[in-house]
Design brief:
166 residues, mainly alpha, two-stranded antiparallel sheet, 9 helices
Amino acid sequence: MAKTVSLDIEHYKDLAQQKQAEHRKFLAQLKKKPPKNLDKLVQEVHTEVFQEIDCTACANCCKTLGPLFTEVDIERISKHFRMKLAAFEDLYLQVDEDNDKVFKSMPCPFLGDDNLCSIYDVRPKACREFPHTDRKKIYQINHLTIKNTLTCPAAYLFVEKLKTRL
């Protein structure tokens, strides 16, 4: 179980900003010549990081990054609230410049004062997968990993730990 300790989000963001170039270079090397055991190592490091980091001590992603909503997400969450799809969309969502459906405003309307998600069991796919540090062929999303280190202490720690392992 992760330790519940409040996280200094600004501290991690500063560290991530300082190490952007270093992280970019490291991840680019992974893409050029991925080690044979990379997927296994990524899983190990991801698990290790989330034994140290308690997302509910942070919830910065829920406060600052709006997830993209798929049609399947909208259907599932609307059903959960027993709402018509259009009513859910009108109440919570807007279409952004990329033509994606996202929250009208942040922080997430389903984030409680305790940093817990009130729709955790039916949350969007983007929320379930964030910060994407447990996926195979991690080097395919280097741009996203770098971006996530600025928001997510776990993503920052993931890259740092992966660097020390390779």
